[in-house]
Amino acid sequence: xxxxxxxxxxxxxxxxxxxxxxxxxxxxxxxxxxxxxxxxxxxxxxxxxxxxxxxxxxxxxxxxxxxxxxxxxxxxxxxxxxxxxxxxxxxxxxxxxxxxxxxxxxxxxxxxxxxxxxxxxxxxxxxxxxxxxxxxxxxxxxxxxxxxxxxxxxxxxxxxxxxxxxxxxxxxxxxxxxxxxxxxxxxxxxxxxxxxxxxxxxxxxxxxxxxxxxxxxxxxxxxxxxxxxxxxxxxxxxxxxxxxxxxxxxxxxxxxxxxxxxxxxxxxxxxxxxxxxxxxxxxxxxxxxxxxxxxxxxxxxxxxxxxxxxxxxxxxxxxxxxxxxxxxxxxxxxxxxxxxxxxxxxxxxxxxxxxxxxxxxxxxxxxxx
Length: 369
Prior knowledge:
This protein has helices spanning 15-27, 37-56, 71-82, 97-106, 120-130, 152-162, 181-184, 244-260, 262-280, 309-318, 331-337, 355-368, and strands at residues 2-3, 65-68, 88-92, 109-113, 136-140, 166-169, 188-192, 204-208, 286-289, 299-304, 321-322, 324-326, 344-348. It is α/β, with parallel strands linked by helices. It folds into 2 domains: 2-10 and 262-368, Aspartate Aminotransferase, domain 1 (Alpha-Beta Complex); 15-260, Type I PLP-dependent aspartate aminotransferase-like (Major domain) (Aspartate Aminotransferase, domain 2), CATH 3.40.640. The strands form 3 sheets. The protein has a 7-stranded mixed sheet, sandwiched between helices. It has a 4-stranded antiparallel sheet with strand order 9-10-13-12, with helices on one face. Helix 6 links the parallel strand 5 (136-140) and strand 6 (166-169). The chain is globular and about 70 Å long.
């Protein structure tokens, strides 16, 4: 098996992640639901995870690390905290449905900035032209389809200058690129645990620069006599029983990323990406969506002449190469790149991808093309 679908879920995890999940299932109950050893063990696991995330993403206060079930959950909290009906919200032309659908659901007025792939200056021009009329900005850091690294630092600077709250979707950048909460000054940064943080599915993180409004209401294990949700973070945004085994695994994934460093992981993946792009660029019948300057994370999309992207992926799967085809839950990004009608084949890398796998995958793609 050659697994190259890490932008969806990182299948290969550090061994410590699986060990931590199993140990938590055997020893940890629910945090805040008792003074006994099993509950205290759970509380320690959860707090260690908050601390590790706060350190990796420069949050400062671990209480501002809210643990969610995924990035979509985190984005829904963030968007519903800041955006209401007719709010004017700027987004890029490369957003995932986890951004687009919540904005549509609340009735926001959506304005799209930047529709040209790998054109950072074009994105910034559009933001500069419209930021003065915005009530909020929601921006992906990296396109999940094309790996396009958006100019998030410059967009954050514009937001600070105009006092417009910023929500960052870091689904494809957390664990791969430098992500500094204090430097960006974002209202919220949302991320999944199960991609480049190497945690289990069912985990996510919301970094909170502001308090936020609850999406769910219920028990928190604290302030139980209060009929309202607690006023303080993180309990304010964490109703219900937590996924303690998942959080235990996420903690080990965060430690793995911290040891390797996001910069080191990005450097490794970029080298593999360049090798892959160079090899596939010589294959007739393929169109690659790549940036010569490598303003791109470890994601490469391509199309094959006369072939449906999902059929191409199915053929690769039969040969032991696992990638993803179609629209990747991001039709807006495909509209921007002109690929909505047929989608793309997407290859996405990880630190567990090795050069030999890249060579074997490229040879199989060449044979199919």
